[in-house]
């Protein structure tokens, strides 16, 4: 092979390098060949000693890529050097396959553990804000006092033909006084009744004409009724009458703690019963509404049990179990014992966050170890290539 043909093939094989580097390498080899010819060596022997121009170009490209990586150390430049070394022989190419598989696993680890970390953070923020600040949890229905409040409000409004408006007010939270307290939520469910409402720790009654209320207190029984615009109050037991306080607007009130049971009957025939079961919140029973019955009772653990019946149809929420029965079919759905749906999600979020963080830290450590090992391997291979080229030039 002649000098010009060798240089031409070398230029073509070095086509991926910048033109300035290609010109510099070509000039260097022309000078080397010229010096050898001046020393009396045959041109064919000099070209044959240099070897295959394509293989020589691969070695030169590996050197050039390594110099580029030393000038600007980045993962992309390092992988370019690794690719150049892999092109030097079959053995290097075979060694590249497990390395690429390892990099794929490492990348998958970054994606997986990164997703776990983000999901854990989002879950903790969403549910943590609910538990700490009382804000609603996205996508989770509020069972307990709040749900009982809406059911009672919507049902009570049906009695006087204003159920839709009452239901909207209840769902909009307009009757809620203290959303942070299950006791207040249960008591606020009474506010939709026109003649009975809760004001702080007291029941306030504004009886309509023809209505009657019977109150069983710790000191006796109080019976009050309103007839022809006049309010009459009868009390049995020492000190029972003194428990009542009269308001300036014609209403009267009594402390909730003094009430054992309260039974209100309106002139239209509607009836509401409130019972102090000894828990921190009252039980509420609203019979005779649209032919059905709504009952709310405390479960003794700070929550509420709700049941709605109308003939053979019944819906109840008791102890984390929802039961629907229409007389022919019975469906019951129970949450896992001891866990609410929000609590389960919060627990998963609490578990995902540390797992994701630990996984990311392990991936970062593996990346550092891989980087150092890869740099050492690349340096050894480039040193071997440089030594080989130097020996060929000297020879």
UniProtKB/TrEMBL annotation:
Ranges that cross the membrane: 81-104, 110-133, 354-371
Keywords from the named record: Membrane, Transmembrane, Transmembrane helix
Protein name listed in UniProt: DUF1700 domain-containing protein
Matches recorded under Pfam families: HAAS (PF22564)
Highest taxon in the source lineage: Bacteria
